[in-house]
Amino acid sequence: MTERLYYDDAYLTEFDAVVTDCVEADGRWHVRLDRSAFYPTSGGQPYDTGTLNDAGILDVYVGEDHDVYHVLDRPLDVGSAVHGHIDWPRRFDHMQQHAGDHMIASALWRLMGGVTIGLHISHDVSTIDVAMPEGVTRISPEDIRRVEADVNARIQRDVPVRCWFPDENELKSLPLRKKPTVADHVRVVAIGEDEMVACGGTHPSSAGQIGLVKILNAAPARGKMRVSFLAGRRALSDYQSLYAIAHETAGLMSTSVENLPAHVSAMQEALKQTEYELNRLRRESAVAELTGGELPVLPNGARLAARILKGDLSLIKDAASQVIKRPGTVALLGCETEPGKAAFVFARSQDVDLHMGQLLAQAAKPLGGKGGGRPDFAQGGGPAAVLEEAVRLLTTKEERG
Q1: Domain check: are 107 and 221 in the same one?
Q2: Which of 43, 39, 132 has the alpha carbon at shortest distance from 84?
């Protein structure tokens, strides 16, 4: 059984060992050592990377025999001596995330009765899933800030972090936050005086080395509450990035960072008014374009306004409504939704004896489009050629309604 050196010293970055097994599978070599400082994926914490001699570590996992295996890009001779080197920035990042997880879980338990049931440390954001009292799956921004403040206050006090294997009698006496998931060889992590739980991960020796914890959000996930957070260097990098973005944006808007929300709100309101006025002008322009001259006369005597207009569905609906206020008028209007495709609105004034729903369906279906509706108003979509087909049907008297 591999001796797991990271249990005794999470800061160990180099070690010597002997290869006890090496098996090839799918072009990779699964190597077992007599001792190792490489952390295997477990408990939501990813594996360590680095090298064994000149072989790169591709994965580290716990096998079915509960031993540690190192997946390499090349083989190592059984019985040979190897020197291991841990990718320290990756290891320390995981230590910060894992300790941050404990401290958030502790605060949620103490302040709100939440029970953490899972941790996941990805390459960018870390998450914990929490079972909250009464099935709550979301907490307020004020509660998030309260938890965040509690965690960072303890980080700033640099409370100690202790990891050890208590004997059976001591384990029974410890005030663990939740029951261990294993029965034997239970390892306990304690952070300060109010966080103690069974855990096999790597952690810093004091909370101050976490530096900072930032909770990004708390949202529902699979019936529980998922808390997303950043710890340590990740939190600092996030702050630096947001700081730069905020100040650059403020500069572009000729205002201060503090005034950005009010400035953006005012711009949104101005934009809303501008869009409203632009849409009004577009509708007026479309109606004027459709009714400004003499319209073609259909065999039944109605005048036809047929056009693909620039705008959206709302615009052609409004334009059609305005056009058919004129007695004896049919409006077949479309707007481009993507190259070669369009949305359609077919409408008629009340004194015209045509069925717009039937006309649209009859024109659209052969071309792979869809549409239908009332006798006086129909809506659909499909190839732009649907409009040409509808005009053809009307002008050759094939659509009678």
Answers
A1: yes
A2: 39
